[in-house]
Write a sequence for this structure.
């Protein structure tokens, strides 16, 4: 269970990006976070594994308080949180297998990492996961030879190699075409239930968010102003989340973003 | 009726006309005075012309009789260049990581930058003079000189490449809980590898050229052979050496250019 309470993040001396935000995610539900650009979605996700340092508040994952960890402890704790990125963040010049195994870098020695001597168990697990998402035949190919959807699958497998307790996805489909985007969304949904893994997704595409999530969180100016089932997200709620964006453009915003 | 203006001139760079013409006048005055007071001794110039004439007369035709000496000198230069390139790169890689703002912490960054600035601030000939004093005449001094020269160039450009990397990959490695060295090996090294190989090949070529120059102040290699030939008034042999140096540099530039184009 991930329990975030009174999380505040302030860059410099300006207005906080996150304002005493509370959020609890548990079970194997897929939670989508929506909100216009600048609402603080990405900051929220990055505060959870402290890629961005929170200013104050508490982040607790299955009993571990993340905000007070030392650097060394944080490194160990980060192994428990998987992350998928909008621009995939794969190592382009390395093979798919090396990219997938890089998800285990928190566990293996620097020497093993340098010489690419991965544990047998990790290799077996990697093939299993790659088989599951349909990229096993690309194991020896360079990551930059793959298409966008295939590359994001590598990104997902890399995160799953950590055997994470929670998966964070920062706009995982924003660089993909609509069809591939839906495939990745349904993959994330299926994996959430297969692996009993809670998943938090930042997403711009409201239509996809409603279709694939178990729960939708709407953010505006660093606060959560909507938190309910996808079915409850109607026009008035949308207007509030995306205030400033004309309602007529909504469908377009959903389709394009 | 047309009331629009039909003339337009580009606004002057210096708006104020008094200031503008003042600056023009001052510059003209300076050039005139400088030219008028140049300490050129025309008698010495014409003497020098005659001496140059004698040297050229003595140099033609080039003399390849002592080609054994020439080849030995070149092989020594080549060894100096290879040794200096390998040593220089080995030292440049860690230095570049130290001197990359996005990777290292402030004190280490300033230390790395400082070492690179020192390595860059002296011309190889000056460094060679110091090393010749320190370790004596010969190729060892030349190799040490070119190690310093390589660091100044390779470490600086490599550090700049590291600062340009796609930081998302570093972020991804941090998010999986990778250690510092593992993060560098996976997220940074693959990104800078093509540049490192390119710099290495260029530096080998550059060191070969520079080894001819530092040899003149006593740091071994073909430069030493050339300096000796001049010292003994063997102008024909000196011309032969010069021609071979130009030829070898042309070849090495062509080869390194070809390789760098292929790996880019």
């Amino acid at each position: 269970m991930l329990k975030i309470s009174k999380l505040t993040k302030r860059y410099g001396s300006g207005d906080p990006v996150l304002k005493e935000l509370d959020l609890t995610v548990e079970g194997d539900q897929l939670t989508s976070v929506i909100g216009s650009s600048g609402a603080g979605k990405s900051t929220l996700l990055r505060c959870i594994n402290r890629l961005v340092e929170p200013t104050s508040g508490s982040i607790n994952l299955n009993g571990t308080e993340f905000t007070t960890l030392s650097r060394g402890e944080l490194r160990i704790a980060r192994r428990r949180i998987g992350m998928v990125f909008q621009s995939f963040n794969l190592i382009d010049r390395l093979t798919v297998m090396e990219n997938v195994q890089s998800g285990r870098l928190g566990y293996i020695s620097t020497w093993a990492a340098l010489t690419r001597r991965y544990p047998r168990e990790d290799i077996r697990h990697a093939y299993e996961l790659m088989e599951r998402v349909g990229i096993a035949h690309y194991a020896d190919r360079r990551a930059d030879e793959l298409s966008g959807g295939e590359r994001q699958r590598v990104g997902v497998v890399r995160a799953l190699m950590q055997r994470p307790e929670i998966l964070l996805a920062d706009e995982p489909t924003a660089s993909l075409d609509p069809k591939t985007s839906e495939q990745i969304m349904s993959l994330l949904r299926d994996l959430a239930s297969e692996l009993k893994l809670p998943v938090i997704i930042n997403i711009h595409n409201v239509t996809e968010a409603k279709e694939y999530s178990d729960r939708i969180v709407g953010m505006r100016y660093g606060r959560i102003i909507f938190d309910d089932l996808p079915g409850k997200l109607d026009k008035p709620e949308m207007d509030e989340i995306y205030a400033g964006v004309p309602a007529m453009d909504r469908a377009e915003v959903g389709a394009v973003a | 009726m047309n009331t629009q203006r039909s003339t337009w001139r580009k606004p002057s760079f210096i708006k104020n006309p008094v200031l503008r013409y003042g600056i023009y006048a001052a510059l003209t005055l300076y050039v005139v005075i400088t030219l008028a007071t140049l300490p050129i001794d025309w008698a010495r110039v014409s003497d020098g012309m005659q001496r140059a004439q004698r040297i050229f007369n003595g140099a033609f035709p080039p003399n390849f009789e002592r080609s054994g000496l020439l080849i030995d000198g070149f092989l020594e230069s080549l060894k100096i260049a290879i040794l200096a390139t390998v040593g220089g790169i080995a030292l440049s890689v860690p230095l570049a990581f130290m001197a990359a703002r996005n990777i290292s912490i402030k004190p280490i960054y300033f230390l790395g930058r400082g070492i690179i600035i020192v390595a860059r601030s002296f011309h190889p000939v000056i460094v060679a003079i110091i090393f010749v004093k320190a370790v004596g005449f010969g190729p060892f001094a030349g190799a040490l000189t070119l190690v310093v020269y390589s660091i100044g160039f390779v470490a600086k450009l490599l550090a700049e490449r590291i600062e340009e990397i796609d930081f998302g990959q570093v972020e991804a490695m941090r998010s999986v809980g990778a250690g510092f060295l593992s993060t560098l090996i996976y997220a940074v090294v693959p990104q800078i590898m093509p540049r490192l190989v390119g710099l290495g090949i260029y530096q080998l070529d550059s060191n070969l050229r520079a080894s001819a120059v530092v040899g003149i102040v006593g740091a071994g290699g073909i430069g030493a052979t050339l300096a000796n030939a001049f010292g003994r008034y063997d102008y024909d042999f000196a011309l032969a050496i010069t021609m071979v140096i130009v030829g070898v540099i042309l070849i090495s530039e062509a080869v390194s250019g070809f390789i760098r184009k292929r790996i880019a």
Q: What stands out?
A: The longest strand of chain A covers residues 2-9. Confidence is low (pLDDT under 50) at residues 246-257 of chain A. Chain A touches chain B through 30 residues (CB under 8 Å). The CA atoms of residues 114 and 252 of chain A lie 47 Å apart.
